Amino acid sequence: MHRSYATDTLLQRHFSKFKEVPPLIALGTLQWGTTPIDNNIINGKRGVLTETEAEDIYLAFRSKGVVLFDTAEGYGGGTSEKRLRRLREKELQSTDPSDLDMKSDAIFMSKFLPSPWRWSHRHFEDALRASNERLGINKSPLFFLHSPMHLFRSVEFWVEAAASCKQKGLLDALGLSNCSADEVRRAVVAGKKFGIPVIVNQVHFSLLDYNSEALQEMQRTCDELGVSIIAYNSLGQGLLTNSIDEVKFKQNKPAKMMRIQWNELNALRQALREIADNHNASMAQVGK
Predict the structure, then answer these.
(1) Going by C-beta distance under 8 Å and a sequence separation of 6 or more, which residues neighbour residue 228?
(2) Residue 118 DSSP class
(3) How many whole angstroms separate alpha carbon 218 and alpha carbon 228?
(4) pTM of the predicted model, to two decimals?
(5) Rounded distance, CA 193 to CA 248, Å?
(6) pLDDT in tens, 175-193
(7) Which of 25, 251, 263, 274 is the most exposed place for a label (fewest CB within 10 A)?
(8) Each residue's pLDDT tens digit, 36-74
């Protein structure tokens, strides 16, 4: 799951369905790929989600009014995108046309990852067209730059590429992912110059790293510019929930990446547990 923060943002202004109530949760599909790599590496011991499991998750979120679904060309080499298309088509086939509500219509958000062998506007456009095809849509409502990092292309270059695709009717708005305060500001300026709204920055954002000055500067910049923050790993893949223990902690990827020690984590967990107990809630509800 991903969590969105801030109100009265460009995301709300861009999508009329969010005008009164901003989206609070998006469903991430990093582990929805169906390739051997997903089965043996990405998903660890649990393996690939079955189609039935994915459908149950998708419908559970849809039944609660969730409309944002986060995917990427790199999630299962595009198989995550294809799975979302199948689930959406099945949902529409089983829904009475009179019950269809545009305000509840699903929004599929995918991403382009810059790499040394993808350096041109055409590479961006080809990736966008391929994602749209896999998702079963003609125009992406919100397409992300998965990372600002490239050997010789700036974030402004990719914003210009997105603007060109917008003029061709291939996308509506651009999102950022893993961008710093400076990169967010530059992207927004470039968006105004080239004619495309830059409305979201998706980043690792949780109590585990909130003391980071860079993270707080990025949040202040997004608040100033009206850019929504979509947080991933907001619960540290279980680190800030009741279910984690020392055995599971040793296998936790965010803990390894952030070099978190079990004894250091326990102080934060204890504070969350006390707040949760006082409010008859779970640690996850507090940490989110």
Answers:
(1) 4, 5, 6, 9, 10, 11, 12, 22, 199, 200, 201, 222
(2) B
(3) 11
(4) 0.89
(5) 48
(6) 999 999 999 999 999 999 9
(7) 263
(8) 998 888 887 788 999 999 999 999 999 888 999 999 999
